[in-house]
Amino acid sequence: MESENSTLIASQLRTVLARLNRKLRKLSPSNTVLSQTERSVLVLLEQHDYMLSAELAGIEKITPQSMGALLNHLDELKLISKTASESDRRKIHISLSESGKQMLEQVRHERDEWLSKALAEACTPQEQLILKEAIGPLTKLVNY
């Protein structure tokens, strides 16, 4: 019985979280020009001082050629910076530009604003408390 209950919860949770994630992505006007992989690359660059194209391609599980095209697009949009390595001129360090940082902040702000409004208007104070208390267990699932 416990296994069936876990499976049902898993199915319902997966569905609702996927829908919420899609909705948050759609609701961010600042983010509409980027693919999911481009957004992911910007977040990776935010977490590191710099990365190499090959490292990014490996993490995103795409070909080096596809990553090159993706990075060229982000460079055209001025969201990244490319700098030759001091120790090996063949290597190019990719980092998040100031414009890229501002875009990520704007996207997060837009999503937070929408979610805050939705929580206030669609959920009772008790439901908001339940959601607040669910953050811990959801974080455990993400980190599993």
UniProtKB/TrEMBL annotation:
GO molecular function: DNA-binding transcription factor activity
Alphabetized SUPFAM superfamilies for the sequence: Winged helix' DNA-binding domain (SSF46785)
Domain HTH marR-type: from-to ranges: 10-140
A Pfam family assignment: MarR
Source organism, top-level taxon: Bacteria
Stored PANTHER family: CONSERVED PROTEIN (PTHR39515), HTH-TYPE TRANSCRIPTIONAL REGULATOR RV0880 (PTHR39515:SF2)
UniProt protein name: MarR family transcriptional regulator
